[in-house]
Design a protein that fits this description.
Length: 355
Amino acid sequence: MAIDERLSGLAALDQRSREIFRRLVETYLETGEPVGSRTISRILPSNLSPASVRNVMADLEDAGLIFSPHTSAGRLPTQLGLRFFVDALLDIGPLDAEQKTAIDARLGKFDRGHRLEEALTDATNLLSGLSQCAGVVITPKHNPRLKHIEFVSLSPQRALVVLVGDDGTVENRSIEVPPGLPASTLTRASNLLSNRLEGKTIAEMQRYIREDADVIRRELDELTAKVVESGLATWSGEEADEKRLIVRGQAHLLESTTALADFERIRRLFEDLEEKREVIRLLGLAEAGEGVRIFIGAENKLFSLSGSSLIVAPYRDGEQRIVGVLGVIGPTRLNYGRIIPMVDYTARAVGRLLT
């Protein structure tokens, strides 16, 4: 049976069962320990005996919401139970003023003179510190408007294409050139691109070259035109849509780890984070929807072995296009009510920065 179908069936739980389950999950999220019927009996507002609580807990276990890690122990929520808690019972309040101030102050120092990646790295560090989890973000490939382009000879068959953005960033890649290419050819290619295409992005430059290929070939000899096309082609194809992953604060995942099983879980999570392509694929799922997305444990392929949760939200540019995703990765025992508004507010703050 699909998770959505099982969750719709759980919506029929009576009020007493919901309250006992909610108290059990909240206590577990706070302590990380199995929760017994006597503990729940003491914190319930009504006078309900431990025996009565145990009867309800038995029904919750039959429903797949909780389980016993070993004989005579208290109960823990299952991943289905955590999903039901997050979707149906979690109280999510607004972000407190102190955290808002910290986020606004951290991102407020950035402006259009800074690289977006700097701001996102700082936002990831901030999220990691506030949540005590690992902060993650995927950002589109940097594509600034260009200030200067130059071709530099490296060897008889290779040249370096150097691009300087109007934000001060510098990127360079090497390309193959015909053997014995004269230095004057590279100079002509540099002059054309710097004089005619300054202030355009790589994508705009490529479009210009395609649309005005005949004009360019009349101005340049055939060999120089090919060098220009080859230089721009190094930024075309799949790399134009390349996503980059930033991860900060992995050490936080070790701070509350005590049991050997927890260390093994964290080790697997670190291995997951090294497989950046899979992480980017997973974060990309959040781009399909609005607001905060929550992935718990085996609900996603990537973290099915590491027992981790992912809370992420997309951020938008000035044209309200989703251009990336940011959030946190941590154990399934997260303070969801505190972290969800934190991630949501940070994503909106980054969006305001881009606007």
